[in-house]
Amino acid sequence: MKVLVTGAQGQLGRSLLATSPSHANIHAVDISECDLTDGDAISALVESVEPDLVINAAAYTAVDKAESEEEMAAAINAGAVKALVEAHPGKLVHVSTDFVFDGASSRPYRPEDDRAPISVYGRTKAEGEDHLRKDDLLVRTSWVYTAGGQNFVRTILRLMKEKPELKVVVDQIGAPTWAPGLARVIWGLVAKGAPGTFHHSDAGVASWYDFAVAIQEEALALGLLNREIPIHPIPSSDYPTPAARPAFSLLDCSKARDLLDDGYTHWRENLRKMLKEEQELG
Does the keyword section mention Transit peptide (predicted)? Predict the structure, then answer.
């Protein structure tokens, strides 16, 4: 099976390559090999590779920057999906986000729930979803991180080394997702031939404050930090950002879990795995 993977140097892209099944012949590309804002370039890429499957792990993920760069965000998050669908008659696997929801739910969001994005990033990701066909595979996720990537965990670790104390938002609720675990779920859904929409995040619930507290505790235990600092919970109103964030973006992942017939790992256990990898990276 020949598989074209876009966004190959991103957190998920690298994890997809690392966890790919032995029978998959991977052709991985990143922005340096193909400009995803250029529909003709995408068409030429697909024509040259002739993949059996395309996994689109590329995205414009700078949530706040997207508010002032809507055209660029739309080109990558929506236009590239349209171009891939038009160029590739076979199955497309596309990865989306909890930000397509408004955060007003009182229960975890199901794959079939109505979307109501409240940011440019969320809107452009929703627009990308709309280009998919019924036999394509859509996987939504949240709060993705991995060792060596650009993410909340590594940012918090750096700040804990630099600052005497931290203030972290406590009223945005969701679940972290370790990228290698997400990649394995995607490959599992591909193996099942699954069409339609699925959700995946790690088990459990957290606020960004909870996540930061856990990062410090686990990093101290591993020796990645040599001192403990105070972490103060604050409301989102005390940390204004250009883009609005959903207050509650927990995803109901039962559909994927039932199909793959396995339990899924709590986010704190996966955080521990990631930090051990971070330690090995030095």
Answer: no
Domains of the chain: 2-281 (3.40.50.720)
C-beta of residue 146 within 8 angstroms of C-beta of residue 176: no
Establish whether 121 is a catalytic residue.
yes
Distance CA 32, CA 275 (A): 29
Q: pLDDT tens, 23-82?
A: 999 999 998 889 999 999 999 999 999 999 999 999 999 999 999 999 999 999 999 999
Pairing of strands 173-174, 206-207: antiparallel
Phi, psi of 106 (to 5 degrees): -105, 5
> What's the CA dihedral at 123, 192, 203, 210 to 10 degrees?
-40
